[in-house]
UniProtKB/TrEMBL annotation:
It comes from the Eukaryota. It comes from Lophium mytilinum. One of its GO terms (biological process) is mRNA processing. GO terms for cellular component: nucleus. This is NAD(P)-binding protein. GO terms for molecular function: RNA binding.
Amino acid sequence: MASQCLVIKEMYNQTELEKEGPNWKRELIDEIGEECREMYGDVAHVGVDPVSSPGDVYIKFIDTAAGTRGFDPHLVDKIVVVTGEARGLGFNMAQAMAEVGAKGIAVIDQKRAIGVPRKARLEHV
């Protein structure tokens, strides 16, 4: 499933950036927004939450095409592993990875009866 939103985990070291001055957060957001616009397409919002998720960056693109391109450099021709694939978020992540060009997807779930039919659906993406 394509999405216009991305979360990049542990992208920055907050302690190091705080040493650069009080405007570190705004400068980081501007830099990420500019780079994402140049590489993937128009960005609606870039956010960081140094209190509840230090290091994580949240990016929302104007449309799903730009969001999907944000996955491409990391997943095209790669083999990925998705755990908990049989339902909900796991299946949606596996589907999104197939749509953006992952070479192969290993899906792992304890609920084999649910996972096998879902696997057949992924093979047609």
